[in-house]
Specification:
The chain is an alpha/beta fold and 325 residues long. Helices cover 34% and strands 14% of the residues. A 9-stranded mixed sheet has the order 6-5-4-3-2-1-9-10-11.
Length: 325
């Protein structure tokens, strides 16, 4: 009960400071701690997806694996406040040699992992279902190898489907409450397969999330955009593709859910793929010091003043309406 009240009180503090800052504009209010975080176990991946910062090779920051000791220090400080933790950002989290130690360290917090599904062996399926993980997201962007590998370069659809079936069977056998979710990124090549992936999800007892693609290479936008506009984040304006977002000068992520990179850097959100806006380093400071520190306050104020001036915000979905994302 005490733990629940602490979380609820913290949520109220974070919410009041966010809305207070929106109304004030001139004064950035920061009370409470984040209610959700994303922790990048690694930014290394086994695939080469062309519109992914990690897979495409465009990422310039160093590659590596998060230290489990660092992660446990983060959890110790933030666990009283967190409702949710995402164990992924860039890269494939199941490549981490201590992947299951990270998941088990999150017991007591709602935890989510998103994976490309290539490491869901029968043994790993047993481990993941019994690990305490609350939600497993598996990306499938095509229902045949040709359409799937058009985006998931070097991926093997049969391997992923076998892994999904394995997890589904183990979950059913153990009567686990873990949520299994299939994520389908809609593009020009696979949009006709939406009915098929719906049937697949149903057969596995999985939820289905249909998402629009984020495109980081502007010259490739036209190649990937689906014909159905509700699955496209972008539209043509003055002979250039731009995101269909009116870009309101606000962003709840800066008050509720930051991202921590594998090497302990705190960054504002999941759109800062290359960690261009480092708010602080958890190897040198506590999270509280960073969260309430001057760099975060300056960045929050810049968002409230003119969000469109910040490069990472120009491909952001916060404020985007009428699109599956």
């Amino acid at each position: 009960m005490i733990n629940y009240l602490t979380k609820f009180y913290n949520l109220a503090l974070a919410g009041s400071s966010y809305f207070g800052s929106l109304f004030s504009h001139d004064k950035v209010m920061v009370r409470g701690m984040p209610v959700s975080i994303s922790a990048e176990l690694t930014n290394i991946c086994n695939l080469n997806c062309p519109e992914c910062s990690s897979g495409s090779g465009q990422m310039t920051r160093q590659r590596g694996f998060m230290d489990i000791g660092l992660f446990r220090r983060i959890i110790k400080e933030l666990k009283p406040y967190l409702y949710n933790i995402n164990l992924y950002f860039q890269g494939e989290p199941m490549l981490h040699p201590l992947f299951f130690s990270f998941v088990e360290s999150c017991r007591g917090i709602h935890s989510t992992v998103s994976t490309n599904g290539h490491f869901l062996s029968p043994d790993n399926s047993e481990k993941i279902v019994s690990s305490g993980l609350n939600r497993l997201i598996v990306s499938i962007d095509g229902t045949d190898q040709e359409s799937y590998s058009a985006y998931r370069i070097n991926g093997n659809l049969e391997t992923v489907l076998e892994g999904l079936k394995s997890v589904s069977n183990v979950r059913d056998r153990h009567k686990s409450s873990m949520k299994l979710e299939i994520q389908f990124l809609v593009n020009r090549i696979n949009e006709h397969q939406i009915p098929q992936v719906r049937s697949l999800a149903k057969s596995l007892g999985a939820y289905l999330t249909i998402k629009s693609m984020q495109i980081i290479n502007e010259e490739n936008t036209g190649l990937w955009l689906p014909a159905d506009r509700k699955y496209s984040r972008y539209e043509m304006v003055n002979s250039k593709f731009v995101i269909k977002n009116r870009m309101p000068d606000r962003c709840a992520r800066l008050w509720f859910n930051p991202v921590i990179t594998w090497d302990g850097k705190v960054i504002p959100c999941c759109f800062d793929k290359d960690a261009e806006h480092i708010m602080g380093d958890l190897n040198q400071e506590s999270f509280s010091e960073i969260w309430n520190g001057p760099r975060y306050r300056v960045f929050r104020k810049a968002i409230l003043k003119d969000r469109s001036m910040i490069e990472i915000c120009r491909n952001c979905i916060s404020g985007l309406k009428g699109v599956k994302y």
